[in-house]
Automatic annotation (TrEMBL):
<keyword id="KW-1017">Isopeptide bond</keyword>
<feature type="compositionally biased region" description="Acidic residues">
    <location>
        <begin position="1076"/>
        <end position="1093"/>
    </location>
</feature>
<keyword id="KW-0832">Ubl conjugation</keyword>
<protein>
    <recommendedName>
        <fullName>Fanconi anemia group D2 protein</fullName>
    </recommendedName>
</protein>
<keyword id="KW-0539">Nucleus</keyword>
<dbReference type="Pfam" id="PF14631">
    <property type="entry name" value="FancD2"/>
</dbReference>
<feature type="region of interest" description="Disordered">
    <location>
        <begin position="1068"/>
        <end position="1112"/>
    </location>
</feature>
<comment type="similarity">
    <text>Belongs to the Fanconi anemia protein FANCD2 family.</text>
</comment>
<dbReference type="InterPro" id="IPR029448">
    <property type="entry name" value="FANCD2"/>
</dbReference>
Length: 1112
């Protein structure tokens, strides 16, 4: 555009006296600090632009005529295009007296942008700019640099008085603009349009998207930059999906795909991907040879691969989308392509990917077109199995089992099939899936090469296949069952006792079978295989039996009576009368034998726990006691060899070496890791008796067994509900929702035991007159009661903290839980809110039965988890605070009867304090601090505690002090949001009194070290707390200055002292300017006479710059 004197279309109507108007215009600008330049240089600001805006507001606000005269003058100035151009170019800031070209200058906003920040001018200036933008956009020009300059003043305005008008006019301009101008305007929309107009903008841009494919790219970029409401974004996505299904141009498909998959909500993702998949399939089947189209296809799938890899939820959605297709014929070529993308790039869930690939190529419904693909998979598996690299062979074992599963999988159960008697070989199997799957597993077993690691992994993977798969081929199952039983009997069962090894004598122990049940003396040769170390066969005992019983369970439809002899079968173990008689080598050998025995008993319990026959249930219960007894022996021996590493117990595919137990974790190793069996607890029934027992027909469950089962169940729930990674990849078989559904019938049984435990604790408290420190509270029997109480609380916490209860779809399950936990069923309750409130009330009454501090914290956490599900209630808030207060009023003792102390104790006390002070207002905090000020002097010895809160003693006082400071800080921040000036003053007054009291409390302590250096985390709060205090002080000062009463403000400084409370001699007692500005002072320890107070006069406030900083 030239600088000729053409008239801008918006300026032709101005015909008034130019000289007079320009004089007023220039005068207003000069008063505001703007010096116009009519040379080649920019316009000059003689003061900061914020002050320019302020002074313009003052001048224009004096009279409406001033605004009119100003706009007339501006129109006259901009009549020449070169002047208009200079008004949208940046200005420069130079102070008065520095107007020479050599003076240092700082670039500032353009005049038009400064005028747009002025409230009196914004509307007129905005209309002026929009009219000029409209005129420029309609011209047939390819260069948009002038249009970009006109748009710049509108970008990122701090305030827009009429956002709807701006949005409407700018979008209207798009309809008349030429293509280059459309691109420029759309690109600037996210920087110009305010967020309140994003939804309207999105709808208009969607309409434009349908009309012009050439604008697709820039419109999609613009829509991605807008923070749209979920509803509007969903509408836009539906519009784009419709465009995709209509067969868009291949050029714009990648851009549309990006918008659909960016920030797509998880609940909408799968339906979206299904439509995208249909469109992709249409693109793939188009075989037209065209270089441009082939390039577009490559670009599309490159974009698709990028979104298949990241974000993670998109990859998971693709997997779910493809795996949800049940009918084989419904799969399309694009499915395989996406699976290959995921398998090549995604590091997680490769097993699931391979599952889908095998389902497509190896299933019962596969067609001949996939036969070549099946052969390719088979070839890859064979190569992996024959590899000498450990990780590759691991993948091969897993892949072979997955492939065999899909080959042998039947769509429905096979009926009327007579299986041949006797041992089955592969040659006895009919041709087809059964023989093919058996051959693949036989090859896999052969390729393990006698390695316990590879064989154990193979056993565990086949066991997982059996546990998660129904309707496997009956011939295949029969072959697998016969093969496994024969191998197990030949390897682990013996009728003779081994000879002495390393002076250790062996015998058959823990036999439960009667002569009528087993005519011959049989035993599991644990000691012999452990000490002879025959290729690590003992390591395979537990996984081999797990595979055996699952195969039998599948083949016999849940009946395991044919292998029940193994439940009562004896085990061969060393005879040990006294662990102290063993030397180091013998102790290690015995420990390994006991460890494998525990693993064996646990697998036996898992195998028969679901059986209903009375004799079998009695034996299961005896095996539970055997596990307890053997674990006790193992613990005792491990005390003498703490450096000993116990063997691995599970062959996880991720890293077998991690399963070796280190000396630091030997306590955890005594509870071998096994597959989760959720029904373990379900097999016992409740009977409320004084002996705290559960009658299961002829079997009695004692408290020691109850503790064992509760602990096992709590551990399993933590894995299922919290997703804790304990190195067992096969635990994903049991989904959280399945486990939680099964819990509905188990929870009442657990609660029945809980009531019995509480009843026993109540009787105990009666005998001690409510005292918690008497010797009767620390006997072994009471320790078991405490453990059972805590374990039930742990189970409740894992249940009610499950994130699934935050979703309405699981509300019925929650209500069923709570109905089963009601103490009285006389009144019917259907509301989840009322059921939760009732159960919270019940839990709140158990504060007296909490005999250990961790149990108190668990109780509070359960209540908080339940409370998070329902709406806020002042009644519940008060109840939680009251429970926390009662728990803090107690003194807590460890298992030895000593007062609780240490890091864990402090952490638990901190939790209770935070809950107690969570809802405290300033008045409540003031009362607590006042009471604390009276009692803090009594904390002289380790045994002393506060009368107000018995849990607070000299060692953890700093935690309570920190909690009070944090509560005060949070409450003040909350209350500041909605207060009048007078209420502000009252709040500052109350806060100042509390801070003075806190300072006095600090002085009452022996030294600053006792209060502040006990906890490094407390020191981390010092800078933030100091900043808050400084902000508070300066805001008060600024408020007083603004109200002409600065003389009422006093500020003092405290002396620096050493740890003994003595003045630091290098510091003068006279306050200087240096120590007035120091930010390192700590609260003083002695009397108030140590403070030197300085009066701050109003004359010292200067221009009030500190106050302006505060108000800004």
């Amino acid at each position: 555009m030239s600088d000729s004197e053409r008239s801008s279309p918006i300026l032709t109507s101005h015909t008034q006296d130019h000289r007079s108007t320009l004089t007023v215009f220039k005068s207003i600008l000069a008063d505001a600090g703007i010096s116009l330049s009519f040379t080649e240089g920019p316009h000059i600001l003689t003061q900061e632009q914020a002050l320019v805006v302020r002074d313009l507001e003052k001048s224009l606000g004096k009279s409406p005529e001033n605004v009119q005269e100003f706009m007339k003058g501006l129109m006259l100035l901009c009549k020449k295009v070169k002047n208009l151009r200079k008004c949208v170019l940046p200005t420069k800031f130079r102070r008065n007296g520095e107007l020479s070209d050599e003076a240092i200058s700082i670039q500032q906003d353009s005049l038009f942008r400064i005028f747009l920040k002025t409230n009196y001018l914004q509307k007129e200036i905005m209309l002026t700019l929009l009219e000029e933008i409209a005129g420029t956009s309609s011209e047939e020009l390819r260069d948009t640099s002038w249009l970009r300059l006109l748009l710049n003043p509108l970008r990122y305005l701090p305030h827009i008085s009429e956002p709807a008008t701006l949005t409407t006019k700018l979008l209207d301009i798009l309809d008349i603009a030429n293509f280059p101008s459309q691109l420029e305007i759309i690109d600037s929309i996210p920087e110009i349009i305010p967020d309140s107009q994003y939804n309207e903008t999105a709808q208009q841009l969607s309409r434009l998207l349908d009309e012009n494919d050439e604008l697709t790219g820039v419109i999609i970029d613009c829509l991605n930059a807008l923070d749209l409401d979920s509803e509007i974004r969903s509408q836009v996505q539906d519009r784009i999906l419709a465009k995709i299904l209509a067969g868009p141009s291949l050029k714009i498909f990648p851009v549309l795909l990006q918008f659909l998959l960016t920030d797509c909500k998880s609940q909408n993702l799968v339906p979206t991907l299904i439509k995208v998949r249909n469109a992709l399939d249409t693109i793939m089947v188009n075989t037209e040879k065209n270089k441009e189209k082939e390039s577009c296809k490559i670009l599309i799938f490159n974009r698709l691969q990028a979104f298949a890899v990241s974000p993670k939820h998109v990859a998971e959605a693709w997997l779910n989308t493809i795996s949800s297709i049940k009918v084989h014929s419904d799969h399309r070529p694009v499915d395989l392509l996406i699976l290959f993308m995921l398998h090549a790039t995604v590091r997680f869930k490769k097993r699931k990917l391979f599952e889908i690939l095998c389902k497509l190529s190896c299933g019962e419904q596969d067609d001949e077109s996939m036969s070549g693909f099946k052969d390719e998979i088979h070839m890859v598996v064979r190569k992996q199995l024959s590899s000498s690299k450990r990780n590759i062979k691991h993948r091969g074992i897993i892949a072979a089992v997955v492939m065999a599963k899909h080959i042998a999988l039947r769509c429905e159960e096979q009926k009327d099939i007579e299986l041949p008697d006797g041992h089955l070989t592969i040659s006895d199997l009919p041709y087809g899936p059964a023989r093919e799957a058996a051959s693949l597993l036989e090859l896999t077993g052969t390729c393990t090469g006698g390695s316990s690691e590879f064989t154990g992994l193979y056993y565990d993977q086949v066991a997982m296949m059996l546990s998660e798969t129904s309707h496997l081929d009956k011939y295949f199952l029969a072959w697998l069952h016969e093969t496994i039983i024969a191998e197990f009997e030949n390897t682990y069962i013996t009728e003779t006792v081994p000879n002495n090894i390393n002076d250790l004598k062996f015998s058959m122990q823990y036999v439960l079978n009667t002569p009528s049940e087993s005519a011959e003396s049989m035993a599991v040769n644990i000691a012999g295989l452990t000490l002879q170390n025959e290729s690590g066969l003992i390591l395979l005992l537990a996984p081999h039996f797990r595979l055996l019983r699952l195969a039998h369970y599948r083949l016999q439809a849940g009946d395991v009576s044919m292998i029940k002899t193994l439940l009562g079968c004896a085990v061969i173990l060393p005879d040990v009368d006294d662990a102290l008689d063993l030397d180091t080598d013998q102790a290690r050998q015995v420990a390994d034998c006991l460890f494998h025995c525990v693993n064996w008993f646990r697998e036996i319990i898992n195998g028969f726990v679901t059986q209903k026959v009375r004799a079998t249930r009695s034996k299961v219960l005896k095996r539970v006691q055997d596990v307890i007894d053997v674990e006790k022996k193992l613990r005792k021996i491990m005390e003498n060899i703490p450096e000993h590493k116990l063997p691995i117990s599970y062959f996880d595919s991720s890293d077998v070496n991690k399963q070796q137990m280190s000396p630091m974790k030997r306590t955890q190793s005594k509870e071998p890791k096994e597959k989760i069996q959720i029904s373990c607890y379900d097999s016992f029934n409740s009977d409320d008796s004084e002996q705290l027992s559960i009658q299961t027909q002829s079997a009695t469950l004692n408290i020691e067994q109850l503790q064992f089962i509760l602990k096992d169940y709590a551990t399993k729930l933590s894995v299922l509900t919290k997703g804790q990674n304990i190195g067992l990849s096969h635990l994903i078989i049991v989904s959280p929702i399945t486990a939680m559904s099964d819990l509905e019938k188990i929870l009442p049984l657990i609660d029945a035991h809980f009531k019995i435990v509480i009843k026993k604790i109540n009787k105990l408290l009666e005998t001690t007159d409510g005292r918690y420190d008497l010797p009767d509270m620390f006997t072994p029997e009471v320790s078991e009661l405490k453990a059972c109480f805590g374990l039930v609380l742990d189970i409740y916490y894992h249940i009610f903290s499950w994130t699934g209860f935050q979703h309405s779809r699981n509300l019925d399950l929650l209500k069923n839980y709570l109905r089963g936990l009601r103490l009285s069923q006389t009144q019917s309750l259907n509301s989840a809110n009322r059921l939760i409130v009732e159960f919270i009330g019940r839990l709140a009454g158990y504060h007296q039965q909490c005999l250990e501090l961790p149990h108190a914290v668990s109780l509070i956490r359960i209540i908080e988890c339940l409370y998070s599900i329902i709406s806020q209630s002042q009644e519940i808030d008060k109840k939680i605070t009251a429970v926390a207060e009662k728990l803090l009023n107690r003194r807590w003792y460890n298992s030895k009867g000593d007062l609780e102390s240490g890091k864990n104790c402090n952490a638990n006390i901190d939790i209770l304090i935070k809950v107690y002070l969570k809802g405290a207002d300033v008045k409540t905090i003031s009362g607590l601090v006042g009471t604390l000020q009276d009692q803090v002097s009594n904390l002289n010895t380790k045994e002393d505690c506060l009368h107000m809160l018995g849990s607070i003693n000299k060692q953890n006082f700093h935690i309570f002090y920190t909690g009070l400071c944090t509560a005060l800080l949070n409450r003040v921040k909350t209350e500041l949001q909605s207060l009048t000036n007078r209420e502000h003053l009252e709040l500052w007054n109350d806060t100042a009194k509390i801070m003075q009291a806190l300072q006095a409390i600090a002085k009452a302590r022996e030294s600053k070290v006792n209060l502040f250096t006990k906890d490094s985390s407390l020191m981390a709060h010092v800078p933030k707390f100091r900043l808050t205090l400084e902000t508070l002080v300066y805001k008060v000062k600024a408020m007083l200055v603004a109200n002409n009463c600065s003389a009422a403000f006093w500020m003092g400084n405290l002396r620096n002292k050493d740890l003994d409370g003595e003045d630091i001699l290098s510091q003068s007692t006279t306050v200087t300017e240096e120590n007035q500005n120091s930010d390192e002072e700590l609260p003083a320890d002695d009397s108030d006479d140590d403070a030197v107070v300085i009066e701050e006069n109003a004359s010292n406030d200067g221009t009030g710059s500190r106050g302006s900083e505060v108000f800004d």
